[in-house]
Specification:
- The complex is a heterodimer of chains A (about 625) and B (about 150).
- By secondary structure, chain A is α/β, with parallel strands linked by helices.
- Chain A folds into five domains: about 110 residues, Glutaredoxin, CATH 3.40.30.10; about 220 residues, 3-Layer(aba) Sandwich (Rossmann fold), CATH 3.40.50; about 90 residues, Roll (Ubiquitin-like (UB roll)), CATH 3.10.20; about 90 residues, NADH-ubiquinone oxidoreductase 51kDa subunit, iron-sulphur binding domain (de novo design (two linked rop proteins)), CATH 1.20.1440; about 55 residues, Alpha-Beta Plaits.
- Chain A contains 25 helices and 19 strands.
- A five-stranded mixed sheet of chain A has the order 12-11-15-13-14. A four-stranded mixed sheet of chain A has the order 2-1-3-4.
- Chain B has about 150 residues and is α+β, with helices and mostly antiparallel strands.
- Chain B folds into two domains: about 55 residues, no CATH class; about 80 residues, 3-Layer(aba) Sandwich (Glutaredoxin).
- Chain B is about 45% helix and about 15% strand.
- Chain B contains seven helices and four strands; from the N terminus they run ααααβααβββα.
- Chain B has a four-stranded mixed sheet with strand order 2-1-3-4, with helices on one face.
- In chain B, helix 1 crosses helix 3.
- The radius of gyration of chain B is 17 Å and the shape is elongated.
- The two termini of chain B are about 20 Å apart.
- Classes of the chains: A alpha/beta (about 625), B alpha+beta (about 150).
- At the A-B interface, helix 2, strand 11, strand 15, helix 19 and helix 25 of A face helix 2, helix 4, helix 5, helix 6 and strand 4 of B.
Chain lengths: ~625, ~150
C-alpha cells in the first residue's frame, strides 16, 4: 500500500493544514515562467541562474529561497517572465539580470522598474501587475493558479486549497451538485456554449450501470493555446473538476483526450493523474467515501475532426475518428455507446471554483447569459500577445486595445478572427461588441474555444478565408459528401480569386456552397465551415471585388497580384532588407537607396516586415 | 529494414489487450521507429485480434502516424492562423529550399523531415518552427532559423 494514500476526508483536511502550516514562514518565492514561449526565449537559463545564485548566496543571507517553474504567466510576447507573487513582474528577463534581482528585489524588497513593462506611448515603465495594462484589465479566476502553482507538485496545489471542492461535493447528493452547476449558468468553453448543468442532468437521467466523464483536450483550433496552458500549468484543477463531474453524474471511469502535438501537456497530466491516484484522490474508494473514479490519458493522433465530440469518442475507442449524425446524443450513447459527459479543459477548471464559492458568487462575473470569465489566446498582430482572461462581456476593443496594447508597428486595426476555422471575422466597426457566446454568434462568428487573432490592414481577408477553407478541406474526414466535395470546390474558387483568375459570379457561388454545407454536413466541422467565408464576404465584400474585378489585392498579400518596390526617398540604406532577403535579390550600397530585382523576387514580404522605415511599398 | 520484433512485442505488451490501445501502440511505434512498420501492424493484428485492414485505416487516418520512415530530425513549421498571418508560408518555402525538399518529404541523407502542422500552440512566437517536438524557434527572421537548423546533425 502506498503510505501517502489518504483514507478519509478528515485525513485529507489535516494533511492540508499540515502542509499549509509548514509553508507559512516561507520567504518570497521567485516564479519563473515555464510556458512554451518562455522556454523558447530562454527561461530555463534564467531559472538555472537563480538556482546557482541561491546556492552560492544561500548561507550568506541565511534565508531559504525557493524558485519554481510555473505554468504560463500569460505575457508570452515579452517572455521570459519572472514574477513575485501578485505584486511584481519582470519581463524579458535574461540570466545576467539575475544577480541584480537577487540583490534588490529578493534581499531588499526593491522593485526594479527597468525590468518592467515599457508603455509604448508614455515610455513609462512599470513592474507591478497593477501598473501594466496587459494584466490590470484582466480578471484571473482560472489563470491565477497557473501563475502560482508548481504543476508537478500536488502538495503545492493542495496547500493552496486544491481538491477542497471534493469535500464539499461529497457532502452533497449528486443531484445537488448538478443543480449548483446549472444555477451557476456555466456554459461549455469548448465552443458551442452548451449549459454544463443541463448536459450533466441528462446524462445522469439515463438508466445505465456505466457512465463516462471525458475531458476534451484536443485543442485543434489553430491559434488557440488556452487549454494547453491550463493542462501544463494547473493540471490538478482539471482533474478536480472531472472528479466532481463524475460524482455528480455517477461515472466511475474518465478519459482525458490530449493532442499529440502537446507533448508537455501529456506528460504533466499523466504525472498529475499518478500523484492524485497515489494520494487516494483518484482510484478506488476516494477519501473513504466508497466512490471509485479513475482517469486514463489518451493521446490524440493529430486530426482536427477529433475535437468533435463523437469523433473524439471513436478515437478513444481506438478507431478512426469519424463523427456520426447528431440525432444520437452522447449523453445517452457516447463512448462505447454508453452515457457520456464530455466537457473541455477550461470548463472542468471552472467546476471547483463554483463548488467552492457557490453559484451566486460565480454569477457576479460576466454577463447574464454567459457568466464567468473566458480565457483567450490573444495572437496575431497585436503589440502584446499571450494568454489572457477577461470577464465575459468585455468588448473586443477593450481586449485588443487595452490588454493587447493596440496594433504592432502603428498599423490600423482591421478585424479579429474568433472561433478558429469554425468562427468568423469581425470587423473593427463592430469592435464594441461584448464578447460572449450569443453576441459573437449573432455577428456571424462564434466563441469557439477562445483563440482571438488580431488582424491589421496588411491582412487580406480573401486570403484568410482561403486559409481556413484549405485547412478544413485538409482536415475533413471524408465521411459526408457536402464537406468532402464542397470544401475542395470552395478552396479552388478562393485560390482562383487570390491568384487573379476570379470571375463575376464567384461570390454568389461561394455563398451557395456555404448554404449547402451548413444544412447538409454531418458534423460541426462541415456545418460551421461557411463562417470564415460568409463573414468575410459580409464585412469585406469590396476586397473580394477588388481581387475579382481589378485583379488587385488591397492588403498586398496575394503574391500573384502584387509587386514590392522600395521607395527611394524613404529608404535609408540600412541594408537590413538585403540581409534578410531569402532570394538575395535586394541590392544597394550602404546608406543609399536599395532596389529589388523583380525577376527573382518571390514576393515573400520579408523586406516589408523587417523595414524600420516603412520604405517597402506594395503595389 | 531491420525492425526488431522484440521491440514491437514489448510495446504491444505494455498496453491492455483491447482495441482501445491501438492508437497509443501505433504512436509508440512512430516514436520508437520513426514510422509505423508493416511488421508492427501485423503483430498488433495477431495479438489484439483486430483485422489488418482496420489497423491500416487508423494508421493512415491520423496525421501523427506515418507509414514511411521519417528523418532523424523533424522540422515542423506551424501553419496556425497567427503563423499564417506572419508568413509561415514563406518560411516553409525558405526552409524547403535550404533542405532541398518539399513539405512532407525527407532529405536524401535522412537528416530532416519537413512538415507543416496546424498549430503548436505557441502563437506568441509566430511564425514558429518546432524541431523534434522539443525545440521551438521564433521564425520572424528566416535566416536565424536556418542557422539553428544547421546545428542538427
Amino acid at each position: 500500500m502506498d503510505n501517502r494514500k489518504l483514507q478519509s476526508v478528515k485525513e485529507f483536511e489535516s494533511y492540508r493544514t499540515k502542509i499549509a502550516e509548514s509553508r507559512k514562514d516561507e520567504y518570497p518565492v521567485i516564479y519563473v515562467c515555464g510556458g512554451t514561449p518562455c522556454l523558447a526565449k530562454g527561461s530555463r537559463a534564467v531559472a538555472h541562474a537563480f538556482k546557482k545564485e541561491i546556492e552560492s548566496q544561500g548561507l550568506a543571507c541565511k534565508v531559504e529561497l525557493r524558485h519554481k517553474v510555473t505554468g504560463c504567466q500569460g505575457f508570452c510576447s515579452k517572455g521570459p517572465v519572472v514574477s513575485f507573487g501578485n505584486d511584481i513582474v519582470y519581463l524579458e528577463v535574461k540570466p545576467n539580470h539575475v544577480p541584480e534581482i537577487m540583490e534588490k528585489t529578493v534581499k531588499n524588497a526593491q522593485v526594479i522598474d527597468s525590468l518592467g513593462y515599457k508603455d509604448p506611448q508614455t515610455k513609462k515603465r512599470s513592474a507591478s501587475f497593477e501598473g501594466i495594462p496587459f494584466y490590470s484589465h484582466q480578471k484571473g479566476m482560472i489563470l491565477k493558479g497557473l501563475r502560482e502553482i508548481d504543476p508537478l507538485e500536488i502538495d503545492d496545489y493542495i496547500a493552496r486549497g486544491g481538491y477542497a471542492s471534493l469535500v464539499r461535493a461529497f457532502a452533497m447528493v449528486p443531484e445537488e451538485v448538478i443543480d449548483l452547476i446549472a444555477e451557476s449558468g456555466l456554459r461549455g468553453r469548448g465552443g458551442g456554449g452548451f449549459p454544463a448543468g443541463a448536459k450533466w442532468k441528462s446524462c445522469r437521467a439515463v438508466d445505465s450501470e456505466v457512465r463516462y466523464v471525458l475531458c476534451n483536450g484536443d485543442e485543434g483550433d489553430p491559434g488557440a493555446f488556452m487549454d494547453r496552458s491550463i493542462m501544463e500549468g494547473n493540471p490538478h484543477a482539471v482533474i478536480e473538476g472531472m472528479i466532481v463531474g463524475a460524482w455528480a453524474v455517477g461515472a466511475h471511469h474518465g478519459y482525458a483526450y490530449i493532442r499529440d502535438e502537446y507533448p508537455l501537456a501529456v506528460k504533466v497530466m499523466k504525472k498529475a493523474v499518478e500523484d492524485a491516484t497515489a494520494m487516494g484522490l483518484l482510484g478506488r474508494n476516494i477519501l473513504g467515501t466508497g466512490f471509485d473514479f479513475d482517469i486514463k490519458i489518451t493521446r490524440g493522433g493529430g486530426a482536427f475532426v477529433c475535437g468533435e465530440s463523437s469523433a473524439l469518442m471513436r478515437s478513444i475507442e481506438g478507431k478512426v475518428g469519424e463523427p456520426r449524425a447528431k440525432y444520437i446524443r452522447s449523453v445517452e450513447k457516447g463512448l462505447y455507446d454508453l452515457p457520456t459527459v464530455l466537457n473541455n479543459v477550461e470548463t472542468w477548471t471552472n467546476v471547483p471554483l463554483i463548488v467552492n464559492n457557490g453559484a451566486q458568487w460565480y454569477r457576479k462575473t460576466g454577463t447574464q447569459g454567459s457568466p464567468g470569465t473566458k480565457v483567450f489566446s490573444l495572437a496575431g498582430k497585436a503589440v502584446n500577445t499571450g494568454l489572457v482572461e477577461v470577464p465575459m462581456g468585455t468588448t473586443i476593443r477593450e481586449l485588443v486595445e487595452k490588454v493587447g496594447g493596440g496594433i504592432r508597428g502603428g498599423r490600423k486595426f482591421k478585424a479579429v478572427q474568433t472561433g478558429g476555422p469554425s468562427g468568423g471575422c469581425i470587423p473593427e466597426s463592430l469592435a464594441d461588441l461584448p464578447i460572449d457566446f450569443d453576441s459573437l454568434s449573432k455577428a456571424g462568428s462564434m466563441m469557439g474555444s477562445g483563440g482571438i487573432i488580431v488582424m491589421d490592414e496588411a491582412t487580406c481577408m480573401v486570403d484568410v478565408a482561403k486559409y481556413f477553407i484549405s485547412f478544413l478541406a485538409e482536415e475533413s474526414c471524408g465521411k459526408c459528401s457536402p464537406c468532402r466535395d464542397g470544401l475542395p470546390r470552395m478552396k479552388q474558387i478562393l485560390t482562383d480569386i487570390t491568384e487573379g483568375r476570379g470571375k463575376e459570379g464567384d461570390i454568389e457561388l461561394l455563398e451557395e456552397l456555404c448554404e449547402v454545407l451548413s444544412y447538409g454536413a454531418l458534423c460541426g466541422l462541415g456545418s460551421s465551415a461557411p463562417n470564415p467565408v460568409l463573414s468575410t464576404i459580409k464585412y469585406f465584400r469590396e476586397e473580394y471585388e477588388a481581387h475579382i474585378r481589378d485583379k488587385r489585392c488591397p492588403a498586398g498579400v496575394c503574391r500573384e497580384l502584387v509587386t514590392f518596390r522600395i521607395d527611394a526617398d524613404a529608404c535609408t540604406g540600412c541594408t537590413l532588407c538585403a540581409k534578410q532577403c531569402p532570394q538575395a535579390c535586394i541590392t544597394g550600397e550602404r546608406k543609399k537607396a536599395h532596389v529589388i530585382d523583380q525577376s527573382t523576387c518571390i514576393k515573400c514580404g520579408v523586406c516589408r516586415d523587417v523595414c524600420k522605415f516603412d520604405a517597402v511599398r506594395v503595389e | 529494414m531491420g525492425i526488431d520484433i522484440r521491440k514491437i512485442d514489448e510495446i504491444i505488451e505494455s498496453y491492455d489487450k483491447s482495441e482501445e490501445s491501438l492508437l497509443a501502440i501505433l504512436q509508440d511505434f512512430q516514436h520508437t521507429f520513426r514510422y509505423v512498420p508493416e511488421e508492427g501492424m501485423k503483430r498488433v493484428s495477431e495479438i489484439l485480434g483486430i483485422p489488418e485492414s482496420k489497423i491500416y485505416g487508423v494508421g493512415t487516418f491520423y496525421k501523427a502516424l506515418s507509414l514511411k520512415p521519417v528523418g532523424r530530425h523533424t522540422c515542423k513549421v506551424c501553419t496556425g492562423t497567427a503563423c499564417h498571418l506572419k508568413g509561415a508560408h514563406t518560411l516553409t518555402d525558405i526552409i524547403g529550399r535550404e533542405l532541398d525538399i518539399e513539405p512532407g518529404e525527407t532529405t536524401k541523407d535522412g537528416r530532416f523531415t519537413l512538415q507543416t502542422v496546424n498549430c503548436v500552440g505557441a502563437c506568441a512566437l509566430a511564425p514558429v518552427v518546432m524541431v523534434d517536438d522539443e525545440d521551438y524557434y521564433e521564425g520572424s527572421s528566416p535566416q536565424d532559423v536556418l542557422k539553428n537548423l544547421r546545428k542538427y546533425k
